[in-house]
Amino acid sequence: MEAESIVVGIMKMDVAGRDARDLGALTRLATERFTHVVDREPRLKITSLTFDGPPLTPGEHGFRALDFVQLGIQEKTERRLAFLLIVTEVEIAAPSLAYLLGLPSQLTNVAILSTRRLSDYGSANWKDDQLMAERLGTLMLHCFGRLLNLGYRADTTNYMARIQVPTDLDRMRHFTDRQFQQMADRLPREANDRYSSGNHFLFFLRQSLVNLPRILRGAWRANPLRLATRLPRMIATALSAIVILIFSAETWDFAASVSPTQLTVFVIASFLAGTFVLYRAFSFHLVATRRGDISESSVVTAGATGLALILTLLCLFVFFALLMYGVVIFVFPDPLMSTWTSARDGSSADAHLRLVLFLAAVGVLSGSLGGSADSRSVVRNVLFAGDET
Q1: CA atoms of 307 and 227, how far apart (whole Å)
Q2: In terms of DSSP bridges, do strands 44-50 and 92-93 run parallel, antiparallel, or are they unpaired?
């Protein structure tokens, strides 16, 4: 790769393995349209790739988009690409839409595009190769713009207009000069195309600091509050453990006697353990190249995923603490709190605070074990695929 080149890969991924709907020719024509539009940016280098017959299994409503994203991460890393657009001919399942045309995963710089719904089967458009190629090329431009964090536009003729139905693609014809300037400004920052050449730990630490704004943006986009609602088993497991403990006199004894330092260490350890368990359950498998190099993109993805999970646990920690404080204040009578503990008075505000912090930490720790059993695809969709088209 040239020193100043930013490589965008466009990969034909024929799942059926038989070039259904002449996917190769369609992708080639769409790539020409895509290249013609982005040719205004001299640093971009477009490369065409083929990956036939991936070992994917369809779900109830079609193939899962995030399975393609996982394959895309591997291919993007090994081929040292800054961005990767994957074009497939099969139906892609969408968690909140009737069907999916494209899914740009801004955190991974991988976008999945399906030709399956670009026109109705058996219609006149079905055999109109030129129209289909134009729609696919427009969809490529739209998804690439989203990978660069270009905002949606109200102008229906702009490539960044919202897409409701495939025919909307026919009206989308241009980027504005301001959008081209935004692309030029953001390309070096969003490409994340550096690779480690020495100590992996130092590379990870350095790239985490350099890309901190992008990591923070990725974690915020994942919406920790929304993610917390996607972990019902975690919440159920945590509440089960907390309810048992709060009605135990030993718990009140411990909370009344534990030192602030000991409690702080326990809370921090609970967060670290909970984050580790959830990260192993829900994160993508981030791979190195065959030479053992790790990519800047992998560092950003891992950092944003870990931070999003920490913020999610923090939301749940606050929820558990407030819930238990309400139980302590409104359920337990003061005489019982005063006499139940054998060491110190358990009815003081200080003892209550230590108790709810301890129970909330137990909830985070125990709940993370149950949370790892929640649906991986549901949680991953919140983390990596919130921008459905």
Answers
A1: 12
A2: unpaired
Instruction: Specify the fold of 6-191.
Output: Collagenase (Catalytic Domain) (3.40.390)
| 141 — pLDDT class (breaks 50, 70, 90) | very high
Kindly report, residue by residue over 209-268, the tens digit of the pLDDT: 887 888 888 778 778 888 888 888 888 888 888 888 887 777 777 777 778 888 889 889
Beta carbons of 43 and 4 less than 8 angstroms apart: yes
- Provide CB contacts within 8 A for 111, sequence distance 6+: 83, 84, 85, 86, 102, 103, 104, 105, 140, 143, 144, 146, 147
Residue entry with tokens 């259904």: 20
pLDDT at 341: 55
The one-letter amino acid code at 14 reads D
CB burial string 226-239: b at 16+ within 10 A, e below? ebbebbeebbebbb
> For residue 361, what are its two tokens?
């930490």
This prediction has a pTM of: 0.79
The H-assigned helical ranges of the chain are: 23-38, 65-78, 129-147, 177-191, 200-210, 212-221, 224-229, 232-246, 249-257, 260-282, 296-330, 334-340, 349-371, 376-384
63, β-bridge pairs: 92
| Tokens 């195309």 -> residue | 193
What is d(CA 303, CA 383) in angstroms, rounded to the nearest whole number? 12
Domain-wise residue ranges, the chain: 6-191, 200-384
Is residue 132 within 8 A of residue 121, CB to CB? The reply is no
208-211-213 Cα angle (round to 5) = 120
CB contact at 8 A, 126 and 120: yes
CA–CA separation, 150 and 4 (whole Å): 22
